[in-house]
Amino acid sequence: MSLLFKILAVTGSAMFAGVMLAIGVILGGYWKSLPPADFLEWFAQHSQLVMQAIPIVVIPTLIGLAGALWFDWGNGTNRAIWFGATGCIVTVLAITIAYYVPSNAAFAAKAVPVDQVSGKLDTWLMIHNLRIALAFAASALGVWAISR
Q1: Rounded to whole angstroms, how far apart are CA atoms 107 and 115?
Q2: pLDDT tens digits, residue range 65-93?
Q3: C-alpha distance from residue 23 to each of 55, 82, 94 (Å)
Q4: How far apart are CA 145 and CA 77, in angstroms?
Q5: What is the spatial distance between Cα 66 and Cα 85, in angstroms, rounded to a whole number?
Q6: Cα–Cα distance, 4 to 75 (Å, whole number)
Q7: Tens digit of pLDDT for each residue in 8-51?
Q8: C-alpha–C-alpha distance, residues 130 and 12, integer Å
Q9: CA distance 103 to 31
């Protein structure tokens, strides 16, 4: 059972990073190619599709991290590594809640002035890269904990 949780923690955070990488590279590149008004229109119509992908990878990640912490609680070094991985994912979720939920809602509601869309999208993508790096770091930390 311990291995199952650890696999969920590693693969879940890697999938989370992969989903965000695809959003950033594929959709981000597409969004940047659109005129600002067209981007807002696309986002208003399709942003829910992007949001539906996140829970599919976040839920197994959180279950895996909780289980890995539980099973490795007695091993101080591994516990610290799993806390690091958990911290990475919690940070991603905090950034998502604090920045992306309101930003995405503003884009979807077309509440961002057209002349500000490009700059806000650039910021959106820059911060998104941090989330990708943190999710990859969580996965790498999990691999380290398992391989010790």
Answers
A1: 13
A2: 999 999 999 999 999 999 999 999 999 99
A3: 14, 26, 18
A4: 8
A5: 11
A6: 18
A7: 999 999 999 999 999 999 999 999 999 999 999 999 999 999 88
A8: 17
A9: 15
Long-range contacts of 79-86 (CB under 8 A, 24+ apart): 81/141, 81/142, 81/144, 81/145, 81/148, 82/9, 82/141, 82/142, 82/145, 84/137, 84/138, 84/141, 85/9, 85/13, 85/137, 85/138, 85/139, 85/141, 85/142, 85/145, 86/138
Contacts of 114 (CB under 8 A, 6+ apart): 36, 37, 40
Rg (CA), the chain: 17
Tokens of 10: 């590693």
Q: Rounded to two decimals, what is the model's pTM?
A: 0.94
Residue 61 token pair = 């990640």
> CA 78 → CA 37, 71, 97, 102, 147, distances in Å?
49, 10, 28, 36, 10
